[in-house]
Specification:
By secondary structure, the chain is an alpha/beta fold. The chain has one domain: Rossmann fold (3-Layer(aba) Sandwich), CATH 3.40.50. Helices cover about 20% and strands about 20% of the residues. The strands form two sheets. It has a six-stranded parallel sheet with strand order 5-2-1-6-7-8, with helices on both faces. The chain has a two-stranded antiparallel ribbon with strand order 3-4. The longest helix has 14 residues. The radius of gyration is 16 Å and the shape is globular. The relative contact order is 0.21.
Length: about 220
């Protein structure tokens, strides 16, 4: 098992927002339909003293965001198009700047957070990863600034949890590796958009050198 030093480890709480949780416009189906509520176990992890830094991320989209099906006439939510040479899933309008659905979920303890990183603010590019936007019109993936913040804080490892397992948490864990950070992926504190994607998600994470753990393993991983 990969071992991280607590004071040099950041907990990344990814996109725990009302629009993605039970009752939200784009609720993660696995969390809602299986009777699981993702807030309680993530809150419990945040209330431990296992981490030197805790950071939350929020999708924070403008109304004219490229990922919204409503901005592509004739295309239904969850259909797919090509944007800048890459596949783009078209989502229902969600996490719109300033709306209640875009807020950090009120069941989480904000006092535990050292920083909140907002992403997906560029109307022309989606942003699954907490570290970088998706490819934009110039062919680049602009950084959010999270990697620089963590490096400045002396962080060399991250623990990733939140929503959704097969999209934003996966992309975040992969980009953490690219940023030179060791990465633990807390499988049972993530919930997937596509229940059939688990095998592919596991394979992709392992290929990138990301260790998959469960919440009960964390006290042994952080020594």
């Amino acid at each position: 098992m990969l071992h991280l030093v607590p004071e040099r480890t950041a907990l990344l709480v990814i996109d725990m927002q009302p629009d993605y949780t039970p009752g939200g416009v784009l609720r993660v189906a696995a969390a809602a339909d299986q009777g699981e509520h993702p807030l309680a176990p993530v809150r419990a992890l945040m209330e431990t003293d296992l981490f030197g830094v805790q950071v939350a991320t929020q999708d924070w989209h403008p109304p004219d965001h490229v990922s919204f099906a409503s901005n592509h006439p004739g295309h239904a939510p969850l259909s797919r198009i090509e944007v800048y040479g890459h596949e783009q899933i078209l989502w229902p309008d969600h996490c719109v700047q300033g709306t209640a659905g875009a807020a950090l979920h009120p069941d989480l303890p904000p006092a535990r957070l050292a920083a909140i990183v907002r992403k997906g603010m560029d109307p022309h590019a989606d942003s699954y990863s907490s570290f970088r936007s998706n490819v934009g019109p110039d062919g680049r993936r602009p950084p959010t600034g999270l990697a620089g913040y963590l490096h400045e804080r002396g962080i060399d490892g991250v623990v990733c949890c939140g929503l959704a397992r097969d999209v934003c948490v996966k992309w975040t864990a992969e980009d953490a590796i690219r940023a030179g950070l060791r990465s633990l992926f807390v499988w049972d504190l993530t919930w997937q958009v596509d229940p059939d994607a688990d095998d592919a998600t596991r394979a992709a994470l392992k290929h990138k050198g990301i260790e998959i753990v469960t919440a009960d393993m964390l006290p042994r991983a952080l020594l």
